[in-house]
Design a protein that fits this description.
Distance between the termini: 27 Å
Structural class: alpha+beta
Radius of gyration: 22 Å
Shape: globular
Number of strands: 19
Largest sheet: 9 strands, mixed
Amino acid sequence: MVPPHQELTRLVGAAKPTPFWLDQPERPAARPPVRGELACDLAVIGGGFSGLWTALLAKEANPGRSVVLIEGNRIGSAASGRNGGFCDASLTHGAENGRERFPAEFDTLQRLGAENLTAIEAAVNRYDIDCDFERTGSIAVATEPYQVDVLRADANSYGVTFLDAEAVRTEVNSPAYVAGTWDKDGTAMLHPAKLAWGLAAACEGIGVRIAERTPATGLASDSDGVTVRTRDGVLRARRVALGTSAFPALVRRLRPFIVPVYDYVLVTDPLTPHQLAGVGWRNRQGVSDTGNQFHYYRLTADNRILWGGYDAIYHFGGDVRRVYDQRPATFVKLASHLLATFPQLEGIGFSHRWGGAIDTCSRFCAFFGTAHHGRVAYALGYTGLGVGASRFGARVMLDLLSGEPTELTQLQMVRSRPLPFPPEPLAYLGVQATRWSLARADRRSGRRNLWLRALDAAGMGFDS
């Protein structure tokens, strides 16, 4: 039985208002900022996964190249330290989205995604990064009868294992489940902040210079290279890679292609052995349900449940503000959903609550390109899949900056762009209409209304 609203409010109110991943005693001390003038071959802007992978791969490929990475706050402090820790092989936000948008190269993108995940695992091992990496796979669960046929079709089309009600509850025990699919190799669970910190250490170990608390404020270019203005200095570089996620893009023409959508997460206290036995979860897969407004959840290394998703909140004007990291109404809603899914956990407490902005684009997977006459490359719009796909995005940026055609630069996914979002107030009204329509579809056995069908026809639709 789900506790009353007042009790849920008390439970989530007792949680720390900070990301669990970043609330760790082993978090490295802040590196000093850039002050004055500095020159390098490659400047990387952004200390999340996109920037860290770019710096690491660039230096691995050319040890003589000078690489400087600057981060406006702390390494991994934004999306890379606030996500669920699902490292997915998909580059396209799921097979169905990829097949719909890139049918001619879908198989190639699936292969590249699988290779990318394997390369991440290899790098974790090569640099001895202690990030709780577990290649457990993931389960998609149906909680409504109409979703079962969709999962059965996915099993037939994409080589995942179909689980009936009994089989899925054997894996993870919830009375809410009526079926599921298990992708046994396509997802790894990890500690995202530890991955970011480990990648930063690996970068420095091979000669990358990293500066924190060095926000970039502008870009300019000339025949000699690119000037990156920072709060306290100037960075001159021959080439620049941008990994700025949901923050306003330094290349202004890119801003209409991204909206920052806030996602929220709860983490429970560690499960007791009795509680863990009650939910099963022996294989420790990541789990997500298949509604339009979906949850994602998993076990941490110390057997807490991380539970996130469902609400996706866009603020008028596309602002990214620290105050938006906390949303009490959403935390109460998430707690009620968790306890409805796992009623055997009645009375469990919550240790952490937080939110963060996702760089969302209209095709729901990353887009790429160059600016400043090919001297600046960008990868943006991961829409929640950046833990894994960011390494692929780093490879794309480096290939684009090389000026040489490669397998990656010839991909339609790389050569094309999503549709831009309209200006305000249309963007805000459109997002709210979409949220309302998706919730309505979930209540009507998945039936999509005229607004959602119009988005589908325009190439901006997504159903999970």
